């Protein structure tokens, strides 16, 4: 064997062995030491004949993870589903117990209801960006086959309005 540094490692499918570095100088003198990749300057010499000790059995497969309920509960997708669902179930029960809270919720829901006095955005954009103006259907068009109100029904409505006044 020519002079130099060699790493001797045993390949076995059933056991794991630690590699050994063998240095051979030009005079033929040999020195063996354990390979230390973390601290290469540290020298642990070994005697001849080299005795390789097993360090365990190789693990070729990863152990399958255990399916746990906490993994499902802590999943971000589950949490994003759980929070709104909890709010939908809990808040109405809390609001039904407190009359002041009911009043506040009623005011908030009234605020969200569309106001009939506000202009229609669609009509506003149509007026701004052009297009023909819509004509309101006349009374004779309503009475046709389109299912409009008959004249007898109109008379009854007018009489009912007069009685109310």
Automatic annotation (TrEMBL):
Keyword Signal: yes
Biased composition (Polar residues): 137-153
The entry's keywords: Membrane, Signal, Transmembrane, Transmembrane helix
Listed Basic and acidic residues bias regions: 156-165
PANTHER family per record: ER MEMBRANE PROTEIN COMPLEX SUBUNIT 7
Membrane topology of the entry: Single-pass membrane protein
Protein name: ER membrane protein complex subunit 7 beta-sandwich domain-containing protein
Residues covered by the ER membrane protein complex subunit 7 beta-sandwich domain: 1-79
GO-annotated cellular components: EMC complex
InterPro entries: Beta_sandwich_EMC7 (IPR019008), EMC7 (IPR039163)
Region Disordered, residue ranges: 127-165
Family of the protein in this entry: Belongs to the EMC7 family.
Cell location: Membrane
TM region(s), chain numbering: 72-91
One Pfam family, short name: EMC7_beta-sandw
Main location: membrane
Keyword Nucleotide-binding in record: no
């Amino acid at each position: 064997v020519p002079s130099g540094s060699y790493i001797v490692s045993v390949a076995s499918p059933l056991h794991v062995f630690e590699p050994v570095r063998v240095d051979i100088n030009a005079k033929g003198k040999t020195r063996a030491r354990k390979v230390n990749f973390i601290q290469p300057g540290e020298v642990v010499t070994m005697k001849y004949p080299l005795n390789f000790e097993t360090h365990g059995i190789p693990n070729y497969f990863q152990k399958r993870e255990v399916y746990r309920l906490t993994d499902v509960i802590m999943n971000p997708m589950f949490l994003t589903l759980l929070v709104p669902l909890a709010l939908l179930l809990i808040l109405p029960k809390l609001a039904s117990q407190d009359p002041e809270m009911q009043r506040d919720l009623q005011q908030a829901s009234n605020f969200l209801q569309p106001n009939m006095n506000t202009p229609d955005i669609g009509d506003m954009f149509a007026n701004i960006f052009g297009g023909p103006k819509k004509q309101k259907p006349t009374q004779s068009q309503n009475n046709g086959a389109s299912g409009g109100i008959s004249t007898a029904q109109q008379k009854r409505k007018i009489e009912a309005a007069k009685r109310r006044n």
